[in-house]
Amino acid sequence: MMLPIVEPPAPSPAPPGIDAALTTDWLVAFLRDELIARRGIPRAVIGLSGGVDSAVTAYLCVRALGAQNVRAIRMPYKTSHPSSLADAQLVIDALGIPSTTIDISPAVDGYLQFEPDADARRRGNVMARVRMVVLFDQSAKLVALPIGTGNKTERLLGYFTWHADDTPPVNPIGDLFKSQVWALARYLGVPHRLIEKAPTADLEADQTDEADLGISYARADAVLARLLLGYSDEQLAEHGFSADEIALVRRRVDATHWKRHLPTTAMLSNTAINEFYLRPVDY
Amino acid sequence: MPPESEAPAHLRVAILQTKPAKGEYQRNLLETAEAFSQVAAEVPELVVLPEGALTGYFLEGAVYDLALPASHFAHDLAQAWRGAGGDAVDLVAGFFENDGGTYYNSAIYLHVTRDEDRIVHLHRKMFLPTYGVFDEERFLSRGHKLGVFDTRFGRMALLVCEDAYHSIVSTVAAVKGARILIVPSASPGRGVENEGEGELESITRWRETLQMAAREHGVYVIYAGLTGFEGGKGMTGSSSVIDPRGRVLVQAPPTEACIVRADLDLREIDLARANLPLLGDLTAVLPYLLQDEELPLPRGRHDAADR
Questions:
Q1: Is B3 domain-assigned?
Q2: Which of A157, B29, B143, B285 could crosslink A252 through cysteines, CB 3.0-4.6 Å?
Q3: pLDDT for B307
Q4: Is B1 inside any structural domain?
């Protein structure tokens, strides 16, 4: 008689999962603690792009602070896709939050008129940085805290403008991979259009993140999750990833460690800040 | 101290799951005194507070601003209890200790009456997590001794956070006669990938670790977890009491300051040990395990480490 064989499932190249209800509760508690308890600023401003990351951030902030305390700022440039503005409006309407729309074209063009040869990458960086100028000024005007919307995948791949997208002092979703953000968006009830459309930075016409990166988010997240646990290329291959996928992700992560740090400062003393003089951010 | 057979049958425990404001010792002491008023109304016999209960946990270099001599901290805590109108009680709390310029992550066991307070035991954390998000040994020194101590409720041991994460520590405490393990802790929460579990993986792992210790050795485990966010790192609270059969009698929520109450039936310890006599077996065999020449144990005298 043949005995049954019991064995664990074969390794699969699945992206990391998420307990969305638990994560929501945890992030709502985090936002309340950071904004209300620690800083005494119970209001938030969020740059709402029409994408899923800022939508999820807005949904979380509304749960934490109430709709009247969350203001959406839409900051289109003249080349932004009209659907981005419309998709952001879906979120504003669904949540019933106040919103402001500020066209950044004059500000961006005010500078770029002197740099007519700037390529798309430079132009995109200028737009991202101007958006932060606007967001921070709006936060001062409204006595509200700017909330970051960068996810873990783009942070790890360096797919963001340094000291722009990563600038807000509080970020609820920065330790969530894009795949997890999508799952969270479904749980929170973010409009389907935003979850199903191809993610884009919308800095250039017809741009998509996955075309820029050369890999889908699902695959990138699956590689990243294992790479961060210390898996070798050989182990990653055993989990079903191609040599090209592994090399692409590893190269992007390794080339962008600097983007996840403060500026490098020359150390000259025994009291160098953040080297010797160490105080936690909430002290 | 009474022999175990004369120890009381019950122990009324309260755990004060604190949510301190980072580094604001005096403010936290005032809030603790206020909470003590509520705790005292329950007439507990033992009150347990978490690791870093009055300062927060992730202090980095600020530990040197906030660390106190044990006698100073003991006095503050006892005064807070007396100010709250509490009767005689035993108090346990974690704090950062300044011992003449050497700094420890310590826990203290006090006996407090209306007229006096006495330090029954001081434990200095032995296992200082210094990996990943943790950086304790950069700022603190290791304790070198796992002491057990006698109380009117029987013999106990204090294990601070990672001390209790190593099964050998609870094992040694139990073999040395501890019947109750008290674990002040500060655990930053992580692990949300398991859909439908409804609990952070780090909380589950802690509970399972403590249940294993309680069940294997027939001891009560009293776990006091710090709560509140510290620079984005959420401390997981989840203060709990686990009985000598490994059952969770009560577990607090992760993110709220609260008071946990439990009435420990101390007779359960002997019953659990009679039912599952693993501790007796271990006591008989442990010397042979430790005499193994292949183990990296110090040989001969090592008094210097026995501070």
A1: no
A2: A157
A3: 43
A4: no
**Within-domain flag for B127:** yes
The residue assigned the tokens 């909470």 is B35
- Over residues A152-196, the pLDDT tens digits come to 999 999 999 999 999 999 999 999 999 999 999 999 999 999 999
The answer to the question of residue A223 being in a domain is no
| Partner B contacted by A261 (CB < 8 A) | no
Measured between CB atoms, does A229 come within 8 Å of chain B? no
Name the closest residue on chain A to residue B58, using Cα atoms.
Answer: A280
How far is CA B28 from each of CA A233, B69, B177, rounded to the nearest angstrom? Answer: 49, 18, 35
Beta bridge partners of B148: B157
Residue span of the structural domain in which A120 resides: 20-211
Q: What are phi and psi of A189, to 5 degrees?
A: 85, 30
Residue B307 in domain: no
The CATH number assigned to the domain holding A103 equals 3.40.50.620
For a pLDDT cut of 90, what percent of chain B falls above it?
A: 88
Reported for B299-306, long-range contacts at CB under 8 A and 24+ positions apart, including other chains, are B305/B144, B306/B144, B306/B145
Tell me: pLDDT of A39 over 90.
yes
Query: Any CB–CB contact under 8 A between B189 and chain A?
Result: yes
Mark residue B101 as left, alpha or beta (left: phi above 0; alpha: psi -120 to 50; beta: remaining): left
Cβ contact (<8 Å) for B23 and A17? no
Would you say residue A67 lies in a domain?
yes
Q: Compute the count of residue pairs across chains A and B with CB atoms less than 8 Å apart.
A: 68
- Asked if the Cβ–Cβ distance from B194 to A277 is below 8 Å, we say no
The number of distinct structural domains making up chain A is 1
The domain in which residue B45 lies consists of: 10-289
- Tell me the CATH number at B102: 3.60.110.10
What are the residues facing B241 on neighbouring strands?
B222, B250
Predicted confidence at residue B300, as pLDDT, reads 61
CB contact under 8 A, A30 and B232: yes
pTM of the full structure:
0.90
Structural domains counted in chain B: 1
The answer, for A96 touching chain B at a CB cutoff of 8 Å, is no
Residue A236 located in a structural domain: no
CA atoms within 13 A on the CB side of A156: 21
Is B116 part of the contact surface with chain A (CB cutoff 8 Å)? Answer: no
Joined tokens for residue B130 = 């210094």
Per CB-CB distance under 8 Å, the chain A contacts of B22 are 280, 282-283
Q: What pLDDT shows up at residue A202? A: 83
Contacts of B154 (CB under 8 A, 6+ apart): B4, B7, B179, B180, B266, B269
* Strands (DSSP E) found in chain B: 10-17, 46-48, 89-99, 102-112, 117-124, 148-151, 154-158, 180-185, 220-225, 227-230, 233-236, 240-242, 248-251, 258-265
Q: Which residues pair with B240 in a beta bridge?
A: B223, B251
